[in-house]
Specification:
This protein is an alpha/beta fold and about 350 residues long. The protein folds into 2 domains: about 55-165 and about 205-335, Purple Acid Phosphatase, chain A, domain 2 (4-Layer Sandwich); about 170-205. Helix content is about 30%, strand content about 15%. The protein is built from 9 helices and 11 strands. A 6-stranded mixed beta sheet has the order 4-5-6-7-9-8, with no helix packed on it. It is globular, with a radius of gyration of 25 Å. The termini are far apart.
Amino acid sequence: MKPLKLQPVLLLTLAILFCYGCQEPADNVVNFEHDLSSGPTPWSHENFNNQSDQFTFAIISDLNGGEREGIFSVAVEQINLFRPEFVLSVGDLIDGGTEDQTQLTKEWESFDARAARLNAPFFHLGGNHDLTNVAMRDFWKKRYGPRYYHFRYKDVLFLMMDSEDYEEDRMQEIYEARAKAIEVLDGDEPEKYPETAYYSMQERRTGEISPTQNAYFEQVLRDHSDVKWTFILMHKPVWMREEGNNFGPMEALLRKRSYTVINGHFHAYSHQKKNDRDYIILGTTGGSQNPSNEGAYDHITLVTMTANEPDIINVKLARMLDKTGKIPLNGDTLEFEPTRQ
């Protein structure tokens, strides 16, 4: 049998077809068909918003510091309707404030069972209710691993920081002072709460980041200098702390890159510009609310990362309706904002 000889033209054709098949698929391929070949069209243009590097993620805020039953479960159902690629948190996921391992297991299992209803991956981050003492730190490590970490997704860097990062002796002092302050709040003279030692501690409002954690994230920033955006999430606004173990060293490294800082803790939404960047404090996703604060409301935050920058919207739970025109899980019976005079 004679060997098969291919003509030069056929060889060239096969080579072209082979190379074409090996090419990366083109970005932004639009499966849009119609039968209009000429003349005007009843649509504005065909530049569809379907960039391959675009993605959306959701963020939940404080559940605790007085969790209101049913709110978080409604938020989970509403988040699923938006279909984000993942869901982040800024802490205070359980009531905590105890060293009782049985109670901690009960609270975390309750939270995780509700969070498991999310279709997208959920990223834990601890707040002062989740990391109140050394025993709770140890519990966290066994259940979730590191208290602070980072990840990179589609050329965007996420820094998940621990704002309760104190030396163990100092953490114990804060824990004991907090317990005494809670006794005052729950007692006959709650008006004396401002006189407690805990009330005067700067850690109560702004937390702390240890030199070890700072060094970790400084190395992360050096290792990922090529990302197009960086998100920094924490529970307490360590960036408000003016001295000690604060956010200053991180801000110095961040000054030449595009970034957004997001935290919780105050149970009221606010936004400000710092270093010409967005610094956002979220409201609640089930936590207690102060009627005197206009920023007190339950919401989720949706962030869509575009080719150039993030688009950030805050959606109130009371305004999100499903296809029946109602809030999921009989949410119409719940209060998502405090009653204001």
